[in-house]
Amino acid sequence: MIPSQRLPYSAIVDRAPLKLPRGVRLVVWPIVNVEVWDIGRPMPRQVLPPPTGVTRLPDVPHWAWHEYGMRVGFWRMKALLDRLKITPTLSVNARVCTDYPRVAQAARDAGWEFMGHSYDQRPIQLEPNQRATIRRAVKVIKAYTGKQPVGWLGPGFTETLDTPDLLAEAGIKYIADWPLDDEPCELRTKHGTLLSLPYSIELNDIAMMMVQHHPASEFVTRCMDYFERLYAESKSRAKIMSIAVHPYISGTPYRIKYFEQVLTALSKQPGVVFWTGEQIMNWYAASRGKV
């Protein structure tokens, strides 16, 4: 099915407002992305132009760039989240559970939600058997955490036209691949309804820093501008603000303070709560009388 067959157009002004629980005005959804970059393949992204303009394998500099995030950056971010008592969603390549068990264990033991992010970091279109890859990722995460993952974000937001059906078939209940609304939306699949949660491509450190090449302080400017507008609109209807970060980007010494400034500022706002994707999904289901 093409997207319009899964999700008919709906203007937000034509919908009855969703309401959050008493005392809650706006939900912040923090997402930490951890990935496995296979040294045997081209790296998922690059920050340095290759010598002579031709990428050679192995691409050690960019593998090491990402590795810094797993060795150092992740632990800076976790210390900050622990101090602020914020439980995020971990968007996780399932292979992290075997390749980086120290990282996976720390997230699991801290009660973070594990959201499927495929098996490792490559576009889902490149998987020779997409169904098998999805099932493998779900199986590995379930075995490691003891819990079926309910959320999914494709590597680089990648999907085929069949992906929602395959995710629902594998027991996934919500996705973050469709950044098309401020509110949760129900997608039609061959295996029932799949929920699309609000996810902003541009409140993402990859977009800001690696693609648009903004200074690190842009993270504060953009996040707080986004928040101010949603907070004003949240007087009349529920609003959700996602913030996505990567340890090798926002976990560096020259960027971590801006992530810290945003979370600290938001945590002080009346009526602002930090929820995982699963919590948002459960609230939506309850508001619709589906639980």
What is the topology?
Blueprint: H1 3-6, E1 26-34, H2 60-83, E2 89-92, H3 96-99, H4 101-109, E3 113-116, H5 130-145, E4 151-152, H6 163-169, E5 174-175, E6 185-189, E7 192-196, H7 205-211, H8 218-233, E8 239-245, H9 247-250, H10 256-267, E9 272-274, H11 277-287
Parallel strand pairs: 1-2, 1-8, 1-9, 2-3, 4-5, 5-7
Antiparallel strand pairs: 6-7
Architecture overview:
It is a single chain. Helix content is 39%, strand content 14%. It is an alpha/beta fold and 291 residues long. The chain is globular and about 55 Å long. It has a single domain (20-42, 58-287), classed as TIM Barrel, CATH 3.20.20.370. Strands 1, 2, 3, 8 and 9 form a five-stranded parallel beta sheet that branches. The protein has a four-stranded mixed beta sheet with strand order 4-5-7-6. The protein has helices spanning 3-6, 60-83, 96-99, 101-109, 130-145, 163-169, 205-211, 218-233, 247-250, 256-267, 277-287; strands spanning 26-34, 89-92, 113-116, 151-152, 174-175, 185-189, 192-196, 239-245, 272-274.
Average pLDDT reading: 97
List SSEs in N-to-C order.
Answer: HEHEHHEHEHEEEHHEHHEH
The main β sheet shows up as:
5 strands, parallel
Hey, roughly how much beta strand do the residues contain? 5-15%
Main structural class: alpha/beta
| Shape call | globular
- Main CATH class: Alpha Beta
Helix content: 25-40%
First-last Cα distance = 27 Å
Secondary structure: number of strands: 9
Helical stretch tally: 11
- CATH superfamily, by name, is Glycoside hydrolase/deacetylase
Here the CATH topology equals: TIM Barrel
Annotated CATH architecture: Alpha-Beta Barrel
Extract low-pLDDT stretches.
Answer: none
Oligomer, anyone? single chain
